[in-house]
Design a protein that fits this description.
With 59 residues, the chain is an all-alpha fold. It has a domain of 30 residues. Helix content is 42%, strand content 0%. The protein has 2 helices and no strands. The chain starts with 28 loop residues before the first helix and ends with a helix.
């Protein structure tokens, strides 16, 4: 039985900015490290609420 793939915002541009966010996916280092152990609800919250807000702030 295979495990379903975990949805991720990673786009393969892995470079941390001075503000501590990944330049590619805008996750924090903590979010990146915990991603595979987060609940689906936690990952959805990050992807639906936090990342769009960070993208908007990035300009």
């Amino acid at each position: 039985m295979s495990t379903p793939a975990i949805l991720t915002p990673c786009i393969g541009v892995c470079s941390l900015r001075l503000d501590g966010l990944c330049d590619g996916c805008l996750r924090t280092t903590d979010e990146i490290a915990r991603w595979s152990t987060m609940s689906e609800a936690e990952r959805e919250r990050v992807m639906e609420l936090l990342l769009p807000a960070r993208e908007g702030a990035r300009g």
